[in-house]
Design goal:
Blueprint lengths: L15 H11 L2 E2 L6 E2 L1 H5 L5 H18 L5 H18 L4 H8 L2 H15 L7 H32 L1
Antiparallel strand pairs: 1-2
Helix pairs in contact: 1-3, 1-6, 3-4, 3-6, 4-5, 4-6
C-alpha cells in the first residue's frame, strides 16, 4: 500500500475533520529539503507509554467515527488491524519510535476509506481477513511455544 500518493477524493461533511486529524497525526510536517513527511503521532510516541496510548486512542476514535458513516465490515477490520499494528510495534522501545515515523496508520485508514467510497474496494464481510489474522496469530503462538520448549530444554541440560 503506497501512502505517498493520496487519492483525489476529498471527504466532506462529518468526515472532513477526520481527514484533518489524520493529516495532523501523520503528515503535517515536512523534513526540510526532502519529501519525508511526519505528524504529531511519532513525536508524541517519544513519551513512553502515554504517547503510545494517546496515539491508539486517537486512531480508535477516528475508526469509530468512520464506522458510523457506513463502511463495510472488511474496511473496519483492516482499519482496526492498522491501528493495532501501529500500537503493538510502536510500543517497542527504539524500534517502535522509528517505526512510528514510517507506518502511518491514520493515513492508511483514510486511504482505505477513500478506496471504499471512490472505487468500491474492500467490500464484504472480511471473514477472510479475520481468518488470516487468526492463522498468523496461531502460528506465532506455536512458534513462541516452540521457543519456550527449546529454552527450557536448554536450561534443563545445563543443570
Amino acid at each position: 500500500m503506497n501512502n505517498n500518493k493520496p487519492l483525489d477524493t476529498n471527504l466532506t461533511g462529518r468526515l472532513k475533520w477526520v481527514e484533518r486529524i489524520s493529516t495532523l497525526m501523520d503528515d503535517k510536517f515536512q523534513l526540510p529539503g526532502t519529501n519525508f513527511r511526519f505528524g504529531l503521532d511519532p513525536l508524541i510516541n517519544l513519551i513512553p507509554i502515554a504517547g503510545d496510548i494517546s496515539g491508539f486512542i486517537v486512531g480508535a476514535a477516528l475508526v469509530l467515527v468512520m464506522a458510523k458513516n457506513g463502511v463495510s465490515r472488511k474496511v473496519m477490520i483492516l482499519m482496526v488491524l492498522n491501528i493495532c499494528i501501529d500500537a503493538l510495534i510502536g510500543g517497542i522501545p527504539l524500534i517502535g519510535n522509528v517505526f512510528d515515523f514510517y507506518y502511518k496508520s491514520n493515513s492508511r485508514n483514510i486511504k482505505l476509506l477513500k478506496e471504499h467510497y471512490e472505487e468500491g474496494k474492500h467490500t464484504g464481510s472480511g471473514t477472510g481477513v479475520l481468518l488470516a489474522v487468526f492463522i498468523i496469530l496461531f502460528l506465532l503462538f506455536l512458534g513462541f511455544l516452540f521457543l519456550v520448549y527449546w529454552v527450557v530444554a536448554w536450561i534443563w541440560r545445563m543443570v
